[in-house]
């Protein structure tokens, strides 16, 4: 029973404890970040939107250089540096009073997130044995979701104070959490990754066409997360008769399923073939979810609520299966000394999806009146059909860090 709720002893449990700790602070912050910038910093909604757009653009250009940096200095060191930058960013939040200072702080935050993301993955891949690596990453994600949930409750309490000190608590608690997390990471065991005498080309990953194609498949699957966070709430409010409080229940359903099922969802992620199967299941689950949401626009009452819940379950399945498969591919496909760089390439591709997804999917699903769901479903079907050949292409391609491009 304990094996279902706790990761293996040793470093995996340390990684999970760190993720839960830092997630509480992030949950506190994310719950009231927009309120902080409007009520405390005095920014307008337009300024906030533009600032986050700039941060999103940084999310496209930073992952690869930061991933390469993590490869060169080591995952743990990059992780600690990212934590230190994050502490500085959040300590500067109370000083934000104009648009450009807001952008500067968000830039530091984006730098911190990029470094910690790359450092965590590079370190975990090097420090955790292959046979439990993906399972450990699943435990980390599950406890991360749990920590976010706890933090969100604390953040709601801080907002309820309806005061400047209450809003200040939001960012200072997160700064404290990141600081403690960085200290925690610094005390984790050091690991050594074998490196070649010749430094690999930092942009050579872009010429690894099979891997690039694979990141394209995952970029399509990332649309399922955009659907859940942005499109489904808009659809439910504008195109169904579901009462607005149902949205909170749907988000809670997703959170509970993610915490309980993330680890079991990794059982197939032990080989190329098994991970490809998970991608296919994720794409087909997302396809089915789109068709279910079409139905929800034509039902009434409790039937609508039940149909929306079914759609959320299917999207959650897509999220869990695709995450498990991605963890396998980003740690097993790249040369060990280029995991950060390859991860950065994948993050850049999904960043493009996060940039174009909200507007494009909103238009297709909501503004077309519903028939656009069929086009979105067709896109996921394409991912399901192409993942097999793409993974086979990846598997038969050698990756030599001494060359500028892999050979098939």
Write a compact overview of the structure shown.
The protein has 14 helices and no strands. With 408 residues, the chain is mainly α.
Could you walk me through the main structural features you see in this protein, from its secondary elements to its overall organization?
- The N and C termini lie far apart (45 Å).
- Helix 4 (63-73) packs across helix 6, helix 5 packs antiparallel against helix 6 and helix 11 (272-296) packs antiparallel against helix 14.
- 79% of the residues lie in helices and 0% in strands.
- It has two domains: 2-186, Up-down Bundle (Growth Hormone, Chain: A), CATH 1.20.1250.20; 204-395, MFS general substrate transporter like domains (Growth Hormone, Chain: A, Up-down Bundle), CATH 1.20.1250.20.
- The chain is mainly alpha-helical.
* The level-1 CATH class of the largest domain: Mainly Alpha
The termini sit apart by 45 Å
Global Rg: 21 Å
Q: Please tell me the CATH architecture of the largest domain by its name.
A: Up-down Bundle
CATH topology type of the largest domain: Growth Hormone, Chain: A
Return residue spans where pLDDT drops below 50 for at least 5 consecutive residues.
Answer: 402-408
Helix and strand content put the structural class at mainly alpha
CATH level 4 superfamily of the largest domain: MFS general substrate transporter like domains
Number of helices: 14
Helix proportion range: over 70%
- What portion of the residues fall into strands of 2 or more residues? under 5%
């Amino acid at each position: 029973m304990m094996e279902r709720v706790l990761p293996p002893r040793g470093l995996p449990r340390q990684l999970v404890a760190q993720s839960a700790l830092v997630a509480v602070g992030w949950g506190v912050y994310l719950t009231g970040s927009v309120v902080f910038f409007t009520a405390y910093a005095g920014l307008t909604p337009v300024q906030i939107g533009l600032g986050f757009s700039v941060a999103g653009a940084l999310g496209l250009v930073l992952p690869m250089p930061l991933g390469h940096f993590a490869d060169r200095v080591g995952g743990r060191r990059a992780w600690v540096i990212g934590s230190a930058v994050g502490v500085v960013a959040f300590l500067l939040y109370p000083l934000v009073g104009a648009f450009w200072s807001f952008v500067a702080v968000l830039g530091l935050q984006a730098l911190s997130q990029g470094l910690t993301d790359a450092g965590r993955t590079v370190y975990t891949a090097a420090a955790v044995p292959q046979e439990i690596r993906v399972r450990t990453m699943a435990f980390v994600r599950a406890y991360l979701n749990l920590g976010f949930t706890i933090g969100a409750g604390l953040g709601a309490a801080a907002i309820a104070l309806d005061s400047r000190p209450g809003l200040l608590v939001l960012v200072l608690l997160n700064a404290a959490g990141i600081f403690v997390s960085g200290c925690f990471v610094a005390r984790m065991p050091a690991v050594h990754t074998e490196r070649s005498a010749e430094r690999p080309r930092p942009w050579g990953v872009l010429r690894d066409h099979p891997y690039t194609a694979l990141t394209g498949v995952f970029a399509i699957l990332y649309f399922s997360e955009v659907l859940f966070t942005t499109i489904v709430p808009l659809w439910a409010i504008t195109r169904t008769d579901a009462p607005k409080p149902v949205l909170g229940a749907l988000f809670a359903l997703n959170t509970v399923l993610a915490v309980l099922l993330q680890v079991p969802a990794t059982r197939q992620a032990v080989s190329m073939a098994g991970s490809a199967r998970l991608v296919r299941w994720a794409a087909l689950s997302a396809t089915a979810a789109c068709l279910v949401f079409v139905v929800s626009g034509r039902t009434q009452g409790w039937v609508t609520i039940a149909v929306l819940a079914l759609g959320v379950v299917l999207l959650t399945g897509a999220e869990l299966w695709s995450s498990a498969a991605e963890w396998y591919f980003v740690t097993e496909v790249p040369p060990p000394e280029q995991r950060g760089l390859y991860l950065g390439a994948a993050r850049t591709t999904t960043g493009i999806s996060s940039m174009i997804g909200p507007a494009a999917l909103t238009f297709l699903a909501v503004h077309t009146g519903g028939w656009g769901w069929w086009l979105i479903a067709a896109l996921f079907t394409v991912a399901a059909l192409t993942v097999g050949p793409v993974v086979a292409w990846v598997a038969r391609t050698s990756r030599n860090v001494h060359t500028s491009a892999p050979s098939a």
